[in-house]
């Protein structure tokens, strides 16, 4: 059977793609990465989103044609604060819309935030066509995953730096957010 | 790594799905089936669409959650005619809209027709939520594929019965055709 080589050397027959649901990303990828930093996924690379411009990301990904998946450690803007540093050399990621809750059956397992990249500096940045979805674990699941890693009870203090899976979607033109559903199966 | 068993026993990591483009279906699946009737695909089953109702198809498929893929021999309505028999016991498939041309780079390789299932008998059938996309090879490619099988030149007579790949999309409610783009990567 004809095989297609992904960048990770994964042999997939024609037509097979990495196309996870929101819940699959949380349950099978992010939760595992938070529980064990050594967890490596075929389809998800690692990137520091403060050090790359969005247009650099496709070449850093393991696979993908219009979407590229990364684990990214969340960098705190201020050591004691909760704001995440979202700036790069060329611009910044700005959150848009409302975070979406992600469920596994009836349990809340994570949240998804949508961000758009602006070139320049706030508040005078220029909107680009790059869109990112950032996934994070729900508080209880997150604490449980860290508890598993370190053998501490789930109520232990949350670490200063935490993994969040980030998904970057490329769009070639300025479009409304309804298009971010096109590639995501329900 | 956690694996998910498809009905065909295919081991895929979480989040990997069969999600081919129109061109991939034509080039890597239909053209091969026409060239060699013994060609078997992991993700594409065989079905006789005149003998099953659309609601029977998911259980006959090799895999799929909202879309099910089949090779189907086109049955001629009349032995000497070109009309395809699209009736089942409960109803019939009716073409809608305009056929779409499918290209591989700049070459026309196939066409895609959209059909909707109606219960009852024409012209008084009742529209259902079942939608099918039927793919067929472009004439030259088709003749070339048959030529390959039988060692005859490409201009040889087309066989009376030919394979067309049929894709069934399930929709749970009556919706407009713009939704048929939701699951198909460009």
From TrEMBL, chains A, B:
> Key word Transcription regulation present in the record?
yes
Could you tell me the keywords of this UniProt record? DNA-binding, Nucleus, Transcription, Transcription regulation
Entry keyword annotation includes Transferase: no
Domain NAC: start-end pairs: 12-161
Sorted alphabetically, the Gene Ontology BP terms of this entry are: regulation of DNA-templated transcription
GO cellular component, as recorded: nucleus
Q: Which InterPro entries match?
A: NAC-dom, NAC_dom_sf
Which Gene3D superfamilies does UniProt cross-reference here? NAC domain
Molecular function per GO: DNA binding
Q: Out of the domains of life, which is the source?
A: Eukaryota
Q: Where in the cell is it found?
A: Nucleus
List the PANTHER family hit by this protein, alphabetically: NAC DOMAIN-CONTAINING PROTEIN 4, PROTEIN CUP-SHAPED COTYLEDON 2-RELATED
Protein name per UniProt: Os04g0460600 protein
Q: Which organism is it from?
A: Oryza sativa subsp. japonica (Rice)
Q: What is the lineage of its organism?
A: Eukaryota, Viridiplantae, Streptophyta, Embryophyta, Tracheophyta
């Amino acid at each position: 059977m004809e095989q297609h080589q992904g960048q990770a050397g994964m042999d997939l027959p024609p037509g097979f793609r990495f196309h996870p649901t929101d819940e699959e990303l949380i349950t099978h990828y992010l939760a595992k990465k938070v529980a064990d930093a050594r967890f490596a996924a075929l389809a998800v690379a690692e990137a520091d989103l403060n050090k790359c411009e969005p247009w650099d990301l496709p070449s850093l990904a393991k696979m993908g044609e219009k979407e590229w998946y990364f684990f990214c450690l969340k960098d705190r803007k201020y050591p004691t604060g909760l704001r995440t540093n979202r700036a790069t050399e060329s611009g910044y990621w700005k959150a848009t819309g409302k975070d979406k809750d992600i469920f596994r059956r009836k349990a809340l397992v994570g949240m998804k935030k949508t961000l758009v990249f602006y070139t320049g500096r706030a508040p005078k940045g220029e909107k680009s066509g790059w869109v990112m979805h950032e996934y994070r674990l729900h508080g209880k699941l997150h604490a449980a995953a860290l508890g598993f890693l370190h053998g501490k009870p789930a109520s232990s203090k949350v670490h200063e730096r935490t993994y969040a899976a980030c998904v970057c979607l490329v769009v070639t033109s300025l479009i409304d957010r309804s298009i971010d559903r096109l590639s995501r199966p329900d």
